[in-house]
Amino acid sequence: MEPGIVNKLIRSGQKVSALELTDLVQPHHTTASLLHEDDPRAVYLCGKILISFNMPESSLASFEYLEKLPGVTFRRLYEQPSTALAVFRRMLPHLAKCFVMGMLYMPKPLLLSELDNWVRPGSKSEKGKALAILSRLHIVTSTAANRDGPPALNLTHNFATSLRLALTGGGDHGSFGIPSDSTQYPNITISFLDEYATAQWEGILHYVVNSSGDPSLLGAQYPSANVRQLLQMGALVDSKGKYSGVGITQAGFSFLLQEANAQVWTVLLLWLEHAEELAMDHVDLLSFFFLLGSLELGLAYSTTTLSTTQQSMLPILTDFGLVYSPPSSSSFFPTRLATTLTSSASALRSIASGFSAAAASPASSGGTTGFIVIETNYRLYAYTSSPLQIAVLALFARLSTRYPNMVSGRVTRDSVRGAIEHGITADQIISYLTTHAHPQLRRKSPVLPPTVVDQIRLWQIENERMKATAGFLFKDFASLAEYEGCVRYADEIGVLVWRSDAKRSFFVTKHEQLRDYIKSRKIK
Prior knowledge:
The chain is an alpha+beta fold. The chain is 48% helix and 10% strand.
């Protein structure tokens, strides 16, 4: 089925049978197993979403930032079709996307009783989590049962309008950028943009790693003052005094463990969090980030349609390597780091070899993934010549020998304790070793020797006895039925941390959705 036909099907509302979807959708797909197989609407909804979009995993960090924003901010954000489409593609789980597309062209609100018919009886928990995410992102609004009718769901006006424009290509909003004449810059090719983005991003990664103080590993392009200031404001590196420079933090090491797309979003979210200090409108910033993710690599775009805030962002985005601005020009070129902002992680991994020093899954010239071998005696061998990768290893391992294409060393109690003193956790070290394990190790299960994994964790807990979780305690329920209903709902939406049936109390990480649920029960 051609993409153009799919778009026509979406607009016309024509049904697609499960048999027709067999060649297009994997039969074991998670969403297909959640939707009710006997409901033709649900089968079609599942099908058209899976055909129309390459669905990436939601970015947890960007989602957590978005859900903290007030409703008025979302109304401004959703005025841009590029933002509505980006949130739809990146932030929503598959089942939530099916719900959105099912309601997008409905003339009236969807009754909750009808939505129950779309989902299998055993998948109520997934339905609750999907609705919770849609509510937190202000994509749907719910009405409680009253004299006018039963409880129902409806898409918010701005989101629905913008998503329809994005899908059909309607309107004159210019939300997806205004191309300019790229032929004026014959030397600015995709290869040039990749090399430029690589140099800029490697400089940032080298600064974070080498902030721990190994001068022999310096040499990458030094980041600008704006970038260094932002990294310190975001606590990726920590100032150690006037003469001691800066050092990597736990957040900085977590940053290095992320794949390239997540690293970019981490830096951009730091920028958003400090927008007021930088005298910038955070809505303009966020809208521009989503706009960049919709642009095409290798094309030039005009700056004349950008807001004042967005134009002032271009020099800093240039420092990050997300855009390239030719001197004395009213155009800019997005790099691959920008155009993949709303893409899936797998799409970014296909270019990971171009970012040879990035902390994402590495790729050698032969296309083999992974470069670290670790033995049960804690000996470590890393088949790499990348200064950045070697510097990362030096944060938690004692390196003793270096060859042209390999370094060797040992994971010791002192080296792990030194990493922990920098705020790096045992789980982060294990995650890094697992992610970058040599293919020879990946043939076995588990990938890492259990003795090594257990010992790294034991070295950490030598000085740790307690773990704190921030959240909210609910107690003093009027009846057992009220308690059981609330705790069941908290578990369904994925916020339950602890419960005590004897004391009729439980602990959750988020309370907004649960609060609305309790209010709706009282109305009934």
